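To whoever is on call:

I kicked off a structure prediction for a single chain this morning and the downstream step that reads the tokens threw a length-mismatch warning. I double-checked the sequence; it's 127 residues and nothing unusual in it as far as I can see. Pasting both halves so you can look.
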Amino acid sequence: QLQLVESGGNLVLPGGSLTLSCAASGAILHLYHVAWFRRAPGKEREQVSCISHGDVIANDADSVKGRFTMSLDVHNPVAYLHMNTLKPEDTADYYCAAAYPGTRPMCPKEVADYQFWGQGTQVTVAS
């Protein structure tokens, strides 16, 4: 059974950078679609980036494109979310998730398509 544990959340100044980590155990992570989601206070959970199974290229959401991207270390295995030029509106709980690829070649965008979730890590952007 795949298990995911996020870490790296912190309080960051606007304009700062932060990298979140998602450590996987129990299965081979890069055989799954892997994604980072976030849930801001009072909002729905949204995907910020994903990597399709067997791939290393990140698909970043338009809302964070150019500031956030994810990477996957297939040898460890750990998924990272690299966040730059952070804004107060990036304040959220960030979650790592994984999905069975099934017949989908590309990582899905919807929360319901992911079977495995970490517990989340909190990022606060404030001065």
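Update from on-call: the warning came from a stale cache, not from the record. Cleared it. Sanity check on the structure: Residues 68 and 83 are 4 Å apart (CA to CA).
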